Amino acid sequence: MAQAKSGDTVKVHYTGRLTDGTVFDSSVERDPLEVTIGAGQVIPGFENGIVGMAVGETKSIVVTKDEAYGDHRQELTMEVNKSDFPESITPEIGQMLQMKNPNGDLIRVVVSEIKDDTVTIDANHPLAGKDLTFELELVSIGS
To answer: Where is average pLDDT lowest: 6-20, 79-93, 123-137?
Structure first.
């Protein structure tokens, strides 16, 4: 029976959980995720977990933060004066916003704290610093 290997385009159903069991994402209620193994389309630990699977096989994998989104980096958080926000935006904790980095590229940030005159924004990936568990089911292997 064929097993998924580097270069294969595969379809996989997955459910991702945090260490406390909270589901953060799942493809179960939608189409399976299509990924080309080795193309860097998903985090390395997820991709490595698919390698060697056969169609119809299911398994659970733990992806450490080092093979996921890395450590939460304090240098990617910053305090911004509330007066620097456009009048049309009222910051709320958990709110996702877009801003330009010094290179002019758009990046996503999350409002993580609000004080009297400042707002703390965080440009880390929301799953940075976390180990992740995935339930995988290999649906198909293409080439």
So the answer is: 79-93
CATH topology of domain 74-122: Thrombin, subunit H (2.40.10)
Nearest 5°: the CA angle 39, 71, 111 is 100
Number of H helices and E strands in the chain, helices first, is: 1, 9
Give me the pLDDT at residue 143, please.
Answer: 58
Exposed (0-12), middle (13-18) or buried (19+): which is 103, by Cβ within 10 Å? exposed
Q: What are phi and psi of 139, to 5 degrees?
A: -90, -40
In CATH terms, the fold of domain 9-70+127-141 is Chitinase A; domain 3 (3.10.50)
Contact 133, 62 (CB under 8 A): yes
Model pLDDT, residue 101:
80
Q: How far apart are CA 84 and CA 75, in angstroms?
A: 20
Are 111 and 119 in contact by the 8 Å Cβ rule? The answer is: yes
pLDDT tens digits for 65-116? 999 999 999 999 999 999 988 889 999 999 999 988 888 889 999 999 999 9
